[in-house]
Amino acid sequence: MSAQLPANLSAETVREISDARDEPEWLLEARLEALEALDELELPDVIQTPGRRWTNLEALDFESLVDPLNQADETTRESPEGVVVLPFTEALDEYGDLIEERFGSVVAPESNYLTALSAALFTTGTFIYVPEGVDAEDVKIRAEMNSRSLFSHTLVVTEKSSSVTILEAVESGDSVDDARYFSNLVEIDAGENSYVQYGSLQNLDEETYTYSLKRADADTYSTVNWIEGNLGSRLTRSDVETELNGEASETKIVGAFFGHDDQHLDVNARVWHKAENTTADLVTRGVLDDEARSVYEGVQDVGRDAWSTNSYQRENTLMLSDQSEADASPKLIINNHDTEASHAASVGQVDAEDLFYMVSRSIPEEQARNMLVEGFFVPVLEEIAVDEFRDDLEELIAARLR
Amino acid sequence: MATLEIKNLHARVAEEDGEQILRGVDLEVKSGEIHALMGPNGSGKSTTSKIIAGHPAYEVTDGEILLHLEDDDFGDVEIPDDARTWNLLELEPNERAALGIFLGFQYPAEIEGVTMTNFLRTALNAKIDEREELLFGEDDDEEAEEEAGYDTSPMEGNVDDGEVGVAEFQKLLKEKMDLLDMDEKFMQRYLNAGFSGGEKKQNEVLQAAILEPSIAVLDEIDSGLDIDRLQDVSKGINALRDEQGTGILQITHYQRILEYVEPDHVHIMLDGKVVKSGDASLASELEDKGYDWVREEVYEAA
Fold it and tell me: Where would you find the membrane-spanning parts of this chain (chain A) (predicted)?
């Protein structure tokens, strides 16, 4: 079920993008390969329940959504001492060899139709490099999307025994009539005994269709923690994934979403345990109001060699209206018996007894409900290391409630 | 002095063919008095307490609940003449609370993500605002509420919102916690989350102490408490009466707590009605003779 290749998309377009950015030959080749692969590739899988295909990616009209030569964004990058945080293009001058080696090594451009499209056309994104032993806090990247379509590619490389906390926020700038498309690929190559927290806050306008795939390769004794916040977009497809490839590596995939009006959220968290003594904790909390819909898939895949695995997964969706809809599929695949694992999902409304308890203490019903919803997100907020990210997310949640 | 007056209260479960639970409850509780409401399981004690507070699961089919207020009930706040008698059944639960009704829950809700401090300060400020509005019809703080929304935080609450500021509230809370022998660590914990049964009950009394109700209805506040905790809770209840003049309606199965919180009046409920009232000696008599004695007496007389 591959999508129709946009007529305005050709090798010529890709060359033009690459030339304008004065890219090395290898990157142009990688883009062209991705472009070529489009013919054969499928859209990413979506959850299906009897009689229903939850997210209809086929309906996306790429021909009108994708305008490859007019991409525009305004991005600011704040970086503490000792860590390299550069726009992707600028980074090629100094870190070309490293980027050539790692680009596409975690998220293969040919993973699916949308990743290939992104790899062929990306014009923005960030390269983050944390040298051995460096501790860096509060890398902040704030992007504003100012065009019909925008493709972003971010690569994070952490060397041995380094650590970094990152916030990536994206919102809409100049308004464009009609629908828009935002694509965001993030790769993390976490070196031995390194620590990464990657926080992402997506608050694009509700004319935007967003596709995002973030994946980490966690080496021995490394920890990769993801915080994924989705409040914007008309449709969001978000996949956050960690491969625990190194012994004793760990990951947390923590997600928060809050949909309203007729927003559609397709959020997914996946972990592959591929080595001994690995630990994963997947926590997602979502709230839906009005006619918003959400679909969640969480996968814990414990491989044959993953002895002594710990793997936990919880997903809770809170519905604030009768018209909202949610589906959740937590999946546990175990190929090694030496595993401690749990998975659970729930979909429900604000608890009537909780609400009555608060109201009986003088708090007006709507305020009480809002406090309960804000409290519902606290387990996610508590995980966030970058203060500014926590403040922003709290503020957006509060604003949406009122 | 406030008076809670329950007259001929009939109520049923609010659903199709919902069971009739209350069949004519009459009861009057005044500020400064301690009443014990006793009765076997299913006699309608808890339902009575929930209906006073306005629980949506019940529908009142007959009778009324009135709250009469007098001059000194809200400290310095003057109560207009036309705002001295309230029909509680016409008010929302939060409005009833604002006028001084407090329900201590048998099973308090556990609420993750909302700290005690945030919850109680929000409640206290909401109570003051709502009471203003009910007494004087002021409704000009809507705008302020909307603005305040952006400064909110699940951890701390609206930092600069409300009558009672953070510092002032912390002081008040500490004072009340000392009285109840509660550890200060509770202040930053989430509301009842992970509290032991006894801690939850202590917390109910603490909330009453902060909100200073005119009438507190305490639903089985004594159940499941060890002796130390029972004494702490009892001390708290007596302080509500002695220091704030709160009227207490205490629902209990057991004589035990009445040794520490001596009631002025004891009422016995059977089959959805108050069938017998007396002084503290009625509770001891009941302990000796059991509910069958009451049942026989009541139905024979009828």
Answer: none
**Angle CA B219–B225–B227, to nearest 5:** 130
The answer to which of A76-80, A184-188, A323-327, B80-84 has the lowest mean pLDDT is B80-84
Q: Count structural domains, chain A.
A: 1
Among chain A residues, the shortest Cα distance to B93 is held by: A360
**Residue A394 lies inside a defined structural domain of this protein:** no
* Per-domain boundaries in chain B: 3-301
Mean pLDDT, rounded, of chain B? 89
Contact check, Cβ <8 Å, B130/A351 = no
Q: Structural domain of residue A44, as residue ranges?
A: 11-350
CATH 3.40.50.300 fits B3-301, yes or no: yes
CA triplet B250, B254, B260: central angle to 5 degrees?
65
Which runs of E-coded beta strand occur in A204-260?
A: 208-218, 223-230, 235-244, 250-259
ipTM of the complex: 0.92
Partners of residue A378 in chain B, C-beta under 8 Å: 112-113, 154-155, 190
Q: Using CB atoms and an 8 Å cut-off, which of residues 338-357 of chain A contact chain B? A: 351-354, 356-357
> What does the pLDDT read at residue B150?
43
Output the pTM of the full model.
Answer: 0.91
Please, are residues B248 and B222 in contact by the beta-carbon 8 Å criterion?
no
Residues A91 and A88: their CA atoms lie apart, in Å, by 5
